[in-house]
Design goal:
heterodimer; A: mainly alpha; B: mainly alpha; MetI-like fold; 2 domains; two-stranded antiparallel ribbon; 2 strands; 78% helix
Chain lengths: 309, 316
């Protein structure tokens, strides 16, 4: 990681806001990594565009497409798409499916993004502290991670979801609880090599404390790994929430999420009500695929950058 | 080698101890009491206290944990008050079904993913590679249960050629119910294929640029000899680790598959237990799955070290 020593032009907009040179260069390089990725990889641009589009449609769509997502209406239950202005038909409670899809998307995206953020921040801190401290602290902290990793995520999630009554904040916490382990491992691995670097030594010699070294020098230098993992975490979190919803442990009605929508749809497989099964599934699969594509592109460019050093 | 195995073994024991503590703490956090679940909402406080006392549930948590570990050491996984059956027995009945599902899915996945990954690596960045990558990507991004649902819609509801439900009854009757196994195995292996073929592809690509490949070619070995005699064998080594690492994913996938296809294996047992708050079963299944994961990873690491001497040399 020669970044801290290589003089590179700070990003214009950030130069005035950050106090110290090191951080500006690092932030700049992270931004440049993203910029390079999307300049070179057309699929990544399309995928990122799709992610933005899905977020905008789910959160702004209901402002343009008004539907009642609180009161059931049995008189309009299970209508085929196109009838009475219901673009995607209605479900067995008479909810408009397009409106429901947007509402469910909000929940799935909120949980996915927030859980990934919490998981990555906590995991990165955990990993950096363990890796920097070394010795017994490292061993204990990493055995905790190993232990929790041994319990398959879905099994842990089912137990957790049975303990806490499902709501969006609870789902965020529950998913984050099982998701922070992988970033913790990744960041710890990088910290092991970072802590012996000259500039870390230099900070220590100059009297910089451990907290300062971890927060301002080690973590900023693992930002590439963290960002790549965060992108994958969002994809995984959306899938996990979908599974919880499908197993009946999602957001309770009248709210909904994509998995819960599908769970209800399963009752109508033989009735041929395809609009209860395909739209939500396609929404999950394409959104998750888009996040994975962005993550792949970021990882590729990170690897290329590491090789160039 | 012995030192490496010893170190990994010790680590695994520590992790296993951690697993029992974690599972126990999780269960202690569960809301609703066992006594209420069994005696019903109208039970008097006295009856509940008597039940708790009879089953040792009124003792301090550390004592309950010690009792739990003591029983585990004697092969006792607990007793499901709800099903009136020992957890060990319940798992014993269900585990073979899950194992059949897992084994078949792994076998199908490897048989398909290895050739596909190799083909992609050899013909990388061409139409076939891009096409398969796209399909694998979609499969990998699909919720497992949704894939199962689509398979049911297509093969059961529309075409009516396969039953929508997994095989019922004991494993010994599975031979007579082979059609019922097709969809669950297909659904579980499709996602695994997506994962494995991606690894296989990059593993083969990594090996194709190695010096030994150039040497073999320089000696005049035919392309197929180079591929099958040298590259394939070396590319399979990372898959050993992947087999171990993918165990938690596969177990989760099996749970979902069993739920979708109503296949009464260990995953379905766990899901039912979660909904009924059947603590002993939750504890037991989580423990069995976690132990299997730890042992699987340990075996994979040892196998890997056996196959690749570089690992054990740097490891010890």
């Amino acid at each position: 990681m020669s970044e801290a020593t290589t003089p590179s032009p700070p990003v214009a907009g950030l130069a005035g806001t950050l106090p110290e040179g090191g951080e500006i260069i690092i932030t700049g390089s992270a931004l440049r990594m993203i910029a390079d990725t999307f300049r070179e990889n057309r699929m990544a641009v399309i995928a990122l565009g799709y992610v933005v589009l899905v977020i905008l449609v789910c959160f702004l769509g209901p402002l343009l497409y008004h539907t009642d997502q609180v009161h059931t209406n049995i008189a309009e239950a299970s209508l085929a798409p196109g009838t009475d202005g219901h673009v995607l038909g209605t479900d067995d409670d008479g909810y408009d499916m397009l409106g429901r899809l947007l509402l469910g998307g909000q929940a799935s995206l909120e949980v996915g993004l927030a859980a990934a953020l919490i998981a990555v921040v906590f995991g990165a801190l955990w990993g950096a502290v363990a890796g920097y401290a070394g010795g017994v602290v490292d061993a204990v902290m990493m055995r905790v991670v190993d232990t929790l990793l041994a319990i398959p995520a879905l099994f842990a999630l089912l137990v957790l979801a049975a303990i806490f009554t499902p709501s969006i904040p609870m789902l965020i916490v529950v998913v984050a609880l099982v998701a922070w382990l992988v970033p913790a491992r990744l960041v710890r691995g990088e910290t092991l090599s970072l802590r012996t670097r000259e500039y870390v030594e230099a900070v220590r010699v100059m009297g910089g404390g451990s907290t300062r070294i971890v927060l301002r020098h080690i973590i900023p230098n693992t930002i590439g790994t963290i960002m790549v993992n965060a992108t994958f975490q969002v994809a995984d979190a959306i899938l996990l929430v979908a599974v919880l919803g499908f197993l009946g442990l999602g957001v309770p009605p009248p709210a909904t999420d994509w998995g819960s929508l599908l769970s209800r749809g399963t009752n109508y497989i033989y009735a041929g009500d395809w609009w209860l099964i395909y739209p939500a599934g396609i929404a999950i699969a394409t959104t998750v695929a888009a996040f994975n594509l962005v993550g792949d592109a970021l990882r590729d460019s990170l690897e290329v950058r590491l090789q160039r050093r | 080698m012995i030192r490496y195995v010893g170190r990994r073994l010790l680590q695994s024991v520590v992790v296993l101890a951690g697993v029992t503590i974690t599972v126990f703490v999780l269960t202690a956090l569960l809301p609703g009491s066992t006594a209420r679940a069994i005696l019903g909402p109208k039970a008097t406080p006295i009856a509940i206290a008597a039940f708790n006392h009879a089953h040792g549930l009124d003792r301090p948590l550390p004592v309950q944990y010690a009792v739990y570990v003591w029983q585990l050491a004697h092969g006792d996984l607990g007793f499901s008050y709800l099903l009136n059956e020992s957890v060990g027995q319940l798992i014993g009945e269900r585990l073979p079904k899950t194992l059949v599902l897992l084994t078949l899915a792994y076998a199908v996945a490897l048989l398909v993913a290895v050739p596909i990954g190799m083909m992609q690596a050899v013909r990388r960045n061409r139409v076939e590679d891009y096409g398969i990558t796209a399909v694998a990507f979609l499969l990998y991004s699909m919720p497992a249960f949704w894939l199962g649902l689509i398979l049911i819609i297509v093969f059961s509801a529309d075409l009516s050629i396969l039953p929508p439900e997994g095989p019922q009854g004991g494993v010994d009757t599975y031979l007579g119910q082979l059609p019922a196994l097709v969809l669950p195995v297909l659904s579980l292996s499709l996602i695994t294929i997506a994962l494995f073929s991606r690894y296989m592809r990059s593993s083969v690509i990594d090996n194709l640029v190695q010096d030994y490949v150039r040497t073999a070619r320089a000696k005049g070995a035919s392309e197929s000899w180079v591929l099958y005699r040298h590259v394939l064998r070396n590319s399979l080594i990372p898959l050993i680790t992947l087999l171990g690492l993918s165990l938690p994913v596969i177990f989760s996938g099996a749970l979902i598959t069993e739920a979708v296809f109503n296949l009464p294996g260990m995953g379905l047992l766990f899901w039912d237990a979660a909904r009924r708050r059947d603590y002993p079963v939750l504890l037991g299944v989580t423990l069995v799955v976690a132990v299997a994961t730890v042992i699987g990873n340990l075996l994979a690491d040892i196998l890997y070290a056996t196959a690749d001497p570089r690992v054990r040399l740097t490891g010890s």
